[in-house]
Amino acid sequence: MGQSLKGKCTAVRSQRGGLASTATMTSAVVVITALVLVVGAVATLPYGYFQFLRVLVCGCAGYLWYLLFASDKHSGWMVVTGVVAVLFNPFLPIYLPRGVWQILDVASAVLLVIVMFTTFRTKATTTL
Fold first, then answer.
1. Between the CA atoms of 61, 67, 73 and 76, what dihedral angle is there, to the nearest 10 degrees?
2. What single-letter DSSP state applies at residue 90?
3. Does position 89 have pLDDT exceeding 80, yes or no?
4. Largest separation between any pair of C-alpha atoms in the chain
5. Labelling 95: which of 6, 41, 89, 114 has CA 20 to 30 A away?
């Protein structure tokens, strides 16, 4: 009857899988969306698509960087996500030949997926 607010919050987090699982699910959706769009960038598409792709991938990499920073997982993956964010930033675009961008698109997609799965993998735990 006298359960504290902190105890109630802990119980709710345990039932829902914790706060980390929410961040993991959100990052999974964002990274998968970026992955599909980046792989689609190999095709010949209008320039507007690539502008949208820059915004999305830069935002996705920035969000993963923030999650790494907030979770105290300061590792080399922060550097990887930072480089991807700078490479795809829409404010000061980096101009490279189309063939180079195609390689970078695929490499960035693979790296972001690896970062997501290696860093934010959570184990299901049950506490009673």
1. 10
2. S
3. yes
4. 67
5. 114
Find out whether 27 and 70 touch, Cβ atoms under 8 Å: no
What confidence score (pLDDT) does residue 26 get? Answer: 66
Q: Which helix (H) or strand (E) holds 115?
A: helix 98-119
Distance between CA atoms of residues 77 and 85, nearest Å? 12
Helix runs in 41-75, H state only: 47-70
Residue 81: both structure tokens together: 């996500």
Q: What is the pTM of this model?
A: 0.67
Residue 28's closest CA among 106, 121, 124? Answer: 121
Cα angle, residue 31 at apex, residues 27 and 35 outer, rounded to 5°: 170
Cβ–Cβ under 8 Å, residues 48 and 41: no
Q: How far is CA 98 from CA 58, 80, 81, 94, in A?
A: 18, 22, 22, 12
Question: Which residue from 73, 105, 103, 69 is spatially nearest to 88, judged by alpha carbons?
Answer: 105
